[in-house]
Amino acid sequence: MTTELHADCAIVGGGPAGLTLALALVRQGIGVVVLEKHADFLRDFRGDTIHPSTQDLLAELGLLDEFLARPHDDMPRVTFSWYGTELTLADFSRLPTRRKVMTFMPQWDFLDLVADAAAQHPQFTLLRSTRVDALIRDGDRVVGVTGTGPDGDVAVRARLVVDASGRDSGLRAAAGLAPTGVASAMDVLWFRVAKTAGDRYPFIQAGSGLIITIDRNDFFQIAHVIPAGAWHGTDADVATMKDRIARISPRMAEAVSSITAADVHLLRVRLERLRRWFADGMLCIGDSAHAMSPAGGVGINLAIQDAVATARILGPVLRDGTPAASDLRRVQRRRSRPTRVTQFVQRRLQGPLIAERASDAPLPFGLRMLRDHPRLTHLTGRFVGLGARPERL
Ligand SMILES: Cc1cc2nc3c(=O)[nH]c(=O)nc-3n(C[C@H](O)[C@H](O)[C@H](O)COP(=O)(O)OP(=O)(O)OC[C@H]3O[C@@H](n4cnc5c(N)ncnc54)[C@H](O)[C@@H]3O)c2cc1C
User: Fold this and answer.
1) Cβ of 290 below 6 Å from ligand 1
2) Are 155 and 201 found together in one domain?
3) Quick check: 45 pLDDT over 70?
4) Which CATH number goes with the domain that contains 362?
5) 212 CB near ligand 1 (under 6 Å)
6) CB of 165 closer than 6 angstroms to any ligand 1 atom
7) For residues 303 and 15, is the Cβ–Cβ distance under 8 A?
8) Less crowded by CB within 10 Å, the N or C end of the chain?
9) β-strands 77-82, 209-215: how paired?
10) What is the CATH number of the domain that holds 239?
11) Which atom of ligand 1 lies closest to the CA of 223?
12) Could you tell me the distance, in angstroms and rounded to a whole number, from the CA of residue 65 to the centre of ligand 1?
């Protein structure tokens, strides 16, 4: 038997974009059903960055105190170690935001916070462990989605379907929307390294590729950026990885010595976007509309800003009726420029991030500029901390 639900808006995907949109809509009294394929938000692959502009939004939502009550780390500057030379990449200290820091919080804690806040509203329904697999159509118009949940089949009919299911979205193709983009030049190897008392590593270490170290109290979560397609999980790949890590960070060599291929997850990076973000009755936002690379650590912010703009533009429309194509186009118009700018910068960063350079080679041009003109680090701070077009509720 199929469980049938009706909502003003059905949102596919409970990531940063989907849950932020849900919260912003239910606050306007709009009925929302979120369908999330996982049972919880306990996944490790998004990065843990909560940007200063996102924290302003949390303040607008009345959630900032609750956010800060959860375990977190604040970073006033993004620092970078180039074969041991310390540099500042981005400085947040002059941002026009309440909190002038990038905060690190495990994504599952952040998403729990947003989902809990949405659940205070009777208009909110979150269907966990529910994978959406198809669209419901009435003629050419999308009028809902179907999927499978823990108790069987589910159908949600809605006046608007929002696809926030991320970079591997299958719904886009079902709606006739195809992404275009450049193949990403990099992939990310994701693994844990044991931590013993007193161990510390710089946040970003670079030289031959890049090592990002996230301190998760009991262990270090490592994201190691490598050239795309270079990892096949063979013993030779593991040896190459350890060798590269030892060159960038001799101190880390010992800590990774026991890592095997089975400990390493390959995260494929994509950098692409839809030419058209909407079909009749359906809108794509976040990585579904524009898959972001981890370069610069800005994809989460962009996804959240998409959600905020969507709620602001479509909330009033949804209260009174059904969004027309022109309403959905307004969201794309608002958000496509910051997307293009951000992806342009990410594309330019890809080469330097994975370049193999000897330890005695001169600093790359961009890093030299940041070292010699520290004022530039406030500009990079704006780009990372605020995004190309910050949104307000
Ligand atoms: C390796 C890596 C590291 C990154 N690190 C950072 C970083 O440090 N900082 C940063 O800002 N950005 C980072 N990014 C980019 C960032 O992860 C994305 O831009 C951001 O997560 C996009 O949010 P989203 O809500 O649009 O999509 P997602 O975060 O991908 O969320 C989509 C959600 O939809 C659910 N879903 C998918 N399909 C279905 C379905 N059929 N039915 C139901 N649910 C479904 C998924 O389970 C998921 O919960 C990184 C990206 C990669 C690849």
Assistant:
1) no
2) no
3) no
4) 3.50.50.60
5) no
6) yes
7) yes
8) N
9) unpaired
10) 3.30.70
11) 1
12) 25
